[in-house]
Amino acid sequence: MKCKDLKVVNLNITEDNYEYKALFRLCTDDKCLDIDLAEISEKKLLEEIKSTFSLEETTDEIKDIIMEKVMEASKVESRNVQGEDCCKTDVDEKTSRDIDSLSRS
Known about the structure:
Layout: E1 7-16, E2 19-27, E3 32-36, H1 43-53, H2 59-77, H3 90-104
Helix pairs in contact: 1-2
């Protein structure tokens, strides 16, 4: 199997006082492996990934491909939720209708 055929799913990147942690799941259709990005440089983990998925590439190539996949997945997963559009849906629509009804009377 080729490493490019693996999928990076359930990417979870957190930050606490500028200490970043990234956890994700590496999957095929029938196998999954949970990975901590902090351990991706460890030879033991790379060998486990290679043997679990029967990959053809070297461990260095596997690491590079997985890092590219994680970076790509982080673009898809990222979103800014710093209070944007907070509490604007039902309350604002109701308030707008109430204001409109007062201005009509």
